[in-house]
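User: I'll paste a sequence; please echo it back and then give the predicted structure.

Assistant: Echoing your sequence first, then the prediction.
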Amino acid sequence: GRISFLSYMQQRMTPDTGGWVYHSVMKQL
């Protein structure tokens, strides 16, 4: 699900790298 995916992204990515990826994903959702 979406929550699991976001949790995965947050755990896998570093704060800097995951930051723009996370926000980019959120904009598309």
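Residues 2 and 29 are 9 Å apart (CA to CA). The chain has two helices and no strands.
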